[in-house]
Amino acid sequence: GVAFGGILPLLQTRMMHSASLRVRDVAASWTTISFNFSIGAGAFIGGVLLDRFGIAVLPWAQFAVMLAGVVFVIVTDRRRIALNPG
User: Could you tell me where the DSSP H helices lie in 19-56?
Assistant: First the structure.
């Protein structure tokens, strides 16, 4: 819960640093929309996986999602640094 509560402000700050001045309002709203959508989608997918495959598959699904997130952050951060050196 503590880590989850701290993620949204960190993501919002990162978005504000990445977005141009022209689209910052839209970027801020999309951050909130995507966060709420992810909560619902995660609950839905977790329920489907639990119903079809049992509880043993949930840690593997979580690992796959976390790995995809880490890869996404690394790739986008390298792109941001390449576009804005210094």
Answer: 24-53
Do the Cβ atoms of 12 and 28 come closer than 8 Å?
yes
Q: Looking only at Cα atoms, what is the longest distance across the chain?
A: 50
Looking at residue 14, what DSSP letter applies?
Answer: H
* Pair 50, 60: CB distance under 8 Å: no
**CA 84 to centroid of chain Cα atoms:** 22
Per-residue confidence of the chain (86 residues) as pLDDT tens digits? 666 677 778 888 888 888 888 988 898 888 889 888 988 999 999 999 999 999 999 999 999 999 998 999 888 887 766 666 65
pTM (2 decimals)? 0.64
Q: Which residues of 20-59 are buried (b: 16+ CB within 10 A; e: fewer)?
A: eeeeeeeeeeebeeeeeeeeeeeeeeeeebeeeeeeeeee
